[in-house]
Design a protein that fits this description.
By secondary structure, the chain is an alpha/beta fold. It has five helices and five strands; from the N terminus they run H-E-H-E-E-H-E-H-E-H. The strands form two sheets. It has a three-stranded parallel beta sheet with strand order 1-2-5, with helices on both faces. The chain has a two-stranded parallel ribbon with strand order 3-4. Helix 3 links the parallel strand 3 and strand 4. The longest helix has 14 residues. The protein is globular.
């Protein structure tokens, strides 16, 4: 019962999903396309609340080595301190988690909500 459909069958009314900043089912980038397709599939399940969290580059400890992410982190980490471009600057994993908890505990009127990286940074304060 770990699938979203299984969760709905046992009574889950909210589902929160960590997607990606460029999620789009029509994207030419495979990763973004798969994330967009997954979002579309989740929307069809009809939870009372579906939170689609789209962080930018995630910062934090990883158990596996990803060369591309190491390079991106080196290049993008200085943007963390800039107040401009909140939706594209890197975000820490704990900030995403805090934002998800706040949204999960809140009562909202939107059935499907896309939460971008900048809003997650604000919610995590």
């Amino acid at each position: 019962m770990n699938s979203p459909v299984g969760q709905k069958k046992i009574g889950a009314v909210k589902f929160l999903y960590v997607s990606a900043l460029g999620a789009d089912s029509k994207s030419a980038v495979f990763y973004n396309k798969v994330k967009g397709e997954t979002e579309n599939d989740l929307k069809s399940i009809q939870f009372e609340y579906l939170g689609l969290f789209r962080p930018s580059l995630l910062l934090g400890n990883r158990s596996e080595f990803r060369f591309g992410e190491v390079i991106a982190t080196i290049l993008m980490k200085p943007l963390v301190w800039l107040k401009l471009a909140k939706n594209i600057r890197p975000i820490y994993d704990y900030q995403v988690a805090k934002a998800m908890v706040k949204k999960a505990l809140a009562s909202g009127s939107e059935r499907v909500e896309v939460v971008l990286s900048g809003e997650m940074q604000d919610l995590s304060k």
